[in-house]
Amino acid sequence: MLRVIIAMIIASAATASGQVLIKKGMQTVGSLETYAPLAVLSYFGQALSNPYVILGTVCNGLFYFLLIASLSWADVTVAVPFTAIEYVFAAVLAVTILQEVVSPLRWIGIVLVVIGVALVSISGEPGTATGSIQG
After folding, report:
1. Sign, Cα dihedral of 80, 82, 85, 89
2. Rounded to an integer, what distance in angstroms lies between the CA atom of residue 11 and that of residue 63?
3. pLDDT tens-place string over residues 78-119
4. Residues 51, 82: Cα–Cα separation, whole Å
5. pLDDT at 15
6. What is the mean pLDDT of residues 49-61?
7. What is the mean pLDDT of residues 127-135?
8. Can you give 9-65 as a three-state secondary structure string?
9. Residue 74 in contact with residue 1, Cβ under 8 Å?
10. Cα dist. 85→67, 99, 101 in Å?
């Protein structure tokens, strides 16, 4: 169970970092204002070549690799709820990097999510993946 917890904490930090980096990249690219086919292609070309967007996508890829590993070690109902820890990382990174304002009510919601994740994690049995296929 410890390796699932460690992997999912790193995965959640990676995906939150990825989302914040993509947001930062999209702030430099600007918003999509027209839907003409060539303008859309040009817009996404700019987005996909932005270094922040590229790095953010790599971080999101790391998340999926760690999620795959975690799903091989634990039940879906144990591993997947850990992804909710991303809310903590995302809020902290949004405040520090993007200078976003997070209201007290959002912080309370994030704390409730963390409490829920803790309840799910303590209910999982260490080292079991009941859905795994044994040869």
Report:
1. negative
2. 4
3. 888 888 889 999 999 999 999 999 999 999 999 998 898 888
4. 28
5. 97
6. 97
7. 45
8. HHHHHHHHHHHHHHHHHHHHHCCCCCCCHHHHHHHHHHHHCCHHHHHHHHHHHHHHH
9. yes
10. 13, 20, 19
Which residue has tokens 């817009």? 43
Q: Quick one: tokens of 119?
A: 């309840």
Long-range contacts of the stretch 61-68 (C-beta < 8 A, 24+): 62/10, 62/11, 62/14, 62/18, 63/11, 63/12, 63/14, 63/15, 63/18, 66/7, 66/8, 66/10, 66/11, 66/14, 67/8, 67/11
Statement: the pTM of the whole predicted model exceeds 0.90:
no
Q: Which two tokens stand for residue 13?
A: 């930090």
